[in-house]
Amino acid sequence: MSARERILDAAADIMRRHGVARATTKEIAKAASYSEALLYKHFRDKEELMLSVLKERMPPFTSTAVPGEGTVESNLVKVVHGALRFYRRAFPMMISMVAQPG
Asked: Which helix (H) or strand (E) element contains residue 20?
């Protein structure tokens, strides 16, 4: 597993447990067994790291619905199930951002 992959795994775990606002790059680097400098070689900043976690470590939002295939109802059910999987994993990370005082 590459350093980038280990950093993403560590970031996803820490962000799920502590939320994005409380997760620090120092803590993420330590959990991945790397220096913070190496983390910054792969990610410009914490925002880029968070977006990479959402893109690469979360279930796809739109699932397997394919326009023109299946019924409208079955495709909508697939989209809703994909959204639920995504939000179940992403919500604990993101709630800390809106819970921070002014």
From this structure: none
